[in-house]
Write a structure and sequence with these properties.
Layout: H1 2-13, E1 15-17, E2 24-26, H2 50-59, H3 70-90, H4 94-99, H5 101-108, H6 112-140, H7 144-157, H8 166-198, H9 208-236, H10 250-264, H11 272-283, H12 288-323, H13 330-358, H14 364-381, H15 387-401, H16 405-415, H17 420-435, H18 437-449, H19 451-469, H20 474-481
Antiparallel strand pairs: 1-2
Length: 484
């Protein structure tokens, strides 16, 4: 009887209910074994308090699942890489507008303000639709916006060569960038979830989710953003109507959408049990309100970084015009602009991979501060640079305005594990929506005060992004690190 009673007590100490009071969950021993009974080889029972349970959850990762079995991991890896490939494809399309802005300006007779608005609308349209589609997707428990957005973006953006005026171009941009916007929250949530199982310890990253998101963003912004300007400008250069040949680029969008639908249609949208445990673990450290406040700070920091990103993309065009003769063709300006955009996109991809691989969870705050402060002076010096020095600088400053973006999203998803799609939509789409004013602001300041002052202004925004990051709670970030 004594043995049976002790065994029952031991079992009771290892069982708890999830915070919503539903199915029981086993809580593992974390640090020290309880004192052993002199009559038994097994530990004597100890009744666990709620605080003990929360500490145990945090120490073991807030209920993070064990590595998937080999067949499940293989399926997760195949699905993950399909999501990554789809991100590469869809991020080709926004860069068509940016790289061809000079050619579109000459082709359709656009004003300088309209040219700046083309770049701005990329962020406005994508930014507004991201949090909305993320909220709807979470409410309806659906991932349909992922593959549907990819198909819409491919079909619309590849048709811009057929636009006869600014109104038609704007209509195609609205459709295409809405597709880009609704794709990203769903796909980033999928990448974090599938990569956690499919990439377990394969790439040497400090955090499975963080590394999965770093690869995801590098494939899109880095590889897709690099290839997009080059593809667009090279197709445009085939002849007077070369821009109409962009229609062939609808093919990868449609094929990628079909592959994404096949790969993810059976992936459930929610992980209720795991999310309940993770939320319960963090609740012992900070209230949900405090965690939302931290996500708000991440949002402000990201919005400033995205503003620098889009503003610089426009200023790079103005810089390219200063490097060429006054009578240089629009195609020549577009080609030089595309080169610096491509180098910048490489820097964005490399920075995401390097930071995702090397950054230990819990160290996000320091890196967000330093990247903002270190890259700001480089931006301020850009007007006096030329040739390879400007290309190198464009690659370096990408560490400031983009390198920590995947890190911030991974951190936000760990802070609010029950709203991964919504947090991704807010940090990406909400940030882009605000940043859409960057190109117009850059155009106005450059015209009124000169290119030098415009670059200095955006250097100030970059430093401010680092300053906002300093307000993040160290204690909360350390607690969230256990859920990486």
């Amino acid at each position: 009887m004594k043995i049976a009673a002790t065994a029952i007590a031991s079992a009771a100490a290892l069982i708890r209910r999830t915070p919503d009071g539903h199915s029981p969950t086993i809580v593992r021993r974390v640090q020290h074994e309880p004192p052993r009974s002199p009559d038994l080889a097994e530990p004597a029972g100890v009744i666990a308090t709620p605080n003990d349970v929360a500490r145990a959850d945090i120490a073991r990762g807030g209920g993070d699942p064990e590595p998937a079995s080999p067949p499940a991991a293989t399926r997760a890896a195949a699905r993950y890489w399909t999501v990554v490939t789809s991100h590469f494809i869809i991020d080709l399309y926004p860069m068509f507008f940016v790289a061809l802005v000079a050619a579109l300006q000459a082709r359709l007779g656009l004003t300088e303000l309209q040219a700046a608005l083309i770049i701005s609308f990329n962020g406005v349209i994508s930014g507004i639709t991201q949090p909305i589609s993320a909220w709807v997707g979470d409410r309806l428990n659906t991932r349909v916006f992922g593959w549907l957005g990819l198909a819409a973006a491919g079909l619309a953006v590849s048709s811009i060569g057929w636009a006869q005026n600014y109104t038609q171009l704007l209509a195609l941009q609205i459709i295409g960038m809405t597709g880009v916007g609704v794709f990203h929250p769903i796909a980033s949530a999928l990448a974090g979830r599938l990569g956690r199982d499919g990439l377990h310890s394969r790439f040497g990253g400090r955090s499975a989710r963080g590394m999965a998101l770093a690869i995801f963003f590098a494939a899109g912004v880095g590889a897709g953003g690099f290839a997009g300007p080059l593809i667009a400008t090279r197709i445009n250069a085939v002849g007077p109507n070369g821009m109409q040949w962009l229609s062939v680029m609808a093919v990868p969008g449609v094929i990628g959408a079909a592959a994404l639908w096949i790969a993810t249609r059976r992936v459930p949208h929610r992980e209720a049990a795991h999310l309940s445990r993770a939320d319960g673990a963090l609740s012992s450290v900070a209230s949900e309100q405090a965690r939302w406040f931290a996500v708000g700070l991440l949002y402000i920091s990201n919005a400033l970084r995205f503003t620098v990103n889009l503003g610089l993309f426009y200023l790079y065009k103005r810089w390219a015009e200063t490097q060429l003769a006054a009578d240089a063709s629009a195609a020549a300006v577009s080609n030089l602009h595309a080169e610096i955009l491509a180098v910048s996109q490489i820097g964005m991809g490399i920075s995401a991979i390097v930071i995702g691989r090397r950054l230990a969870p819990g160290r996000e705050r320091g890196l967000m501060i330093s990247t903002g402060l270190v890259t700001a002076p480089v931006i301020a010096l850009m007007p006096v640079l030329d040739g390879w020095m400007m290309l190198a600088a464009a690659s370096v400053v990408a560490f400031g305005f983009f390198g920590v973006i995947p890190t911030s999203i991974s951190l936000a998803q760990r802070l609010l594990p029950h709203a991964t799609g919504l947090t991704a939509g807010i940090l990406m789409g909400g940030g882009w929506a605000v940043a859409a004013g960057g190109p117009v602001l850059a155009e106005r300041v450059a015209d009124a005060f000169g290119l030098d002052v415009a670059f200095i202004l955006f250097a100030g925004f970059m430093a401010a992004a680092g300053g906002v990051s300093a307000l993040l709670s160290r204690r909360l970030i350390r607690a969230a690190a256990t859920l990486a």
